[in-house]
Amino acid sequence: MFTLLQRFGRWGSVCLTALTLATGLAATLPARAENPLAFGLVPAEDPRIMVQDNQALIDALRQGVGTEIRPFVATDYNGVIEALRAKRLDIALLGPFSYVLATTIAEVDLIAVIETQKQGPVYHSLVVARKDRNLRSLADLKGHTFAFVDPSSTSGHLFPKTAMIRAGLKPDTDLRAIFAGSHDAAAIAVQNGKVDAAAVADGLYDAAVARGMVKPDEVAVIWKSDPIPGIPVVMRRDLPEPLKQKIRAAFVGMRDVPWSKGAVIRRWVAANDSDFDVVRESARLLNLDLRKMK
After folding, report:
1. pLDDT number for residue 34
2. Distances in whole angstroms, Cα of residue 174 to Cα of each of 18, 81, 171, 240
3. How confident is the model at residue 14 (pLDDT cuts 50, 70, 90)?
4. Of 70, 93, 69, 64, whose CA–CA distance to 81 is shortest?
């Protein structure tokens, strides 16, 4: 039923698809950062949920910049990165690993990272498993079915896979793994028994529980990562400077914005590119050549 997906071995075909997507955006997204601004969102959840969960953020940004904001959710994480490279997006909310990848192929400036009311400017990766599978640690996953999220997902792939290797597993051969495409899809796959375990971001797992997609009496957390740098937002480097100043000021001025199910963006925190070196280190452990992941 499950086959091991060697997605990084097929990265060229993945990116070709994403390039086609980015080219197709020309008909729907502005080529220049004028009115409206195109705001990219990686598909951490179902696209409709992504837009809904980020609507308050979009409204706050629209009010702060004084410009209409048009959200765009790609079919995969790499689609947003390629759209940034093609200059069909003006602003994008990325994952930490997506940000690292974006810096290798697109001219983007880091604006800030999210600080939520629950976690501050960091979050965590989780591995969750069905309780009836008797899985209690990463080492127990050998021979089981597993759902990662996306090759470019930090909490849904990079960090849990790194942890598996450090625990003595060989994820590419010890697991029967799939890529679910989004965090909620990975969590639901565990809930429905399609896979034995999955990787998911803690906030998105909490949202899945709050929405009734996952029943905590049937699913258990068997691993939690160290803190991961917060969710970054970036903008195109070649935007007009007055517009860039407005965008930065809009994010700096945001306070207590509802975000996702039960979460609140307390504020946006200034960040440096070096804050994401821990992400780059994990990529090196997995022998990922970021320059070739285009």
Report:
1. 54
2. 29, 30, 5, 50
3. very low
4. 93
